Amino acid sequence: MIRLRLFGRCRIYHDPVSPVLKSPAQVGWDAWFRSIDLVTPQELKGEELLRRTRGWWTIEPNEISDIVKRYGRLVVGDNGELMVEFEDKEDVDNLSRALADKFGDQVLLSP
Q1: pTM value?
Q2: DSSP annotation string for 6-73
Q3: Distance CA 2, CA 21 (A)
Q4: Which of 35, 77, 88, 99 could form a disulfide with 81 if both were Cys (CB 3.0 to 4.6 A apart)?
């Protein structure tokens, strides 16, 4: 299994940036007639974390996701980083080529 980080070009500063999940999302509950003091932490999945790049990256996340799914799987790394998981080196090379063909230098893979 090979894992590489996924970076996109920042819309404002044009440097490569990648989202990092710093803490799990917290889901709470409201009710009409009572108070609920329950908050449950929910980990984001790779696809959800990629969607959070909308407006930050120069490329729309759904366009990136469609290409990534052909060659690998979006995951959240151990330290909260957005990563692509691959079965073998050939998939890495194919995705790198597909991203470069479609987006130029706007979406990058990095160890």
Answers
A1: 0.87
A2: EEEEBTTT-SEE--B--S-EEEE---SSS----EEEEPPPHHHHHHTTTTTBSS-HHHHHHHHHHH-E
A3: 20
A4: 77
Query: Do 99 and 108 touch, CB atoms closer than 8 A?
Result: yes
Q: Across the strands, what pairs with 5?
A: 83, 110
Give yes or no for residue 43 having a pLDDT over 90: no
Containing structural domain, residue 48:
2-110
Amino acid type, 77? G
Question: Residue 25 above 90 pLDDT?
Answer: no
Whether the CB-CB separation of 84 and 95 falls below 8 Å is answered with yes
Is residue 48 within 8 A of residue 54, CB to CB? The reply is no
Weakest-pLDDT range from 7-11, 40-44, 73-77: 40-44
Tens of pLDDT, residue by residue over 73-89, are 999 999 999 999 999 99
Q: Which three-class secondary structure state does DSSP give residue 100?
A: helix
Task: With CA atoms as reference, report the closest residue to 69 among 56, 50, 54, 52.
Answer: 50
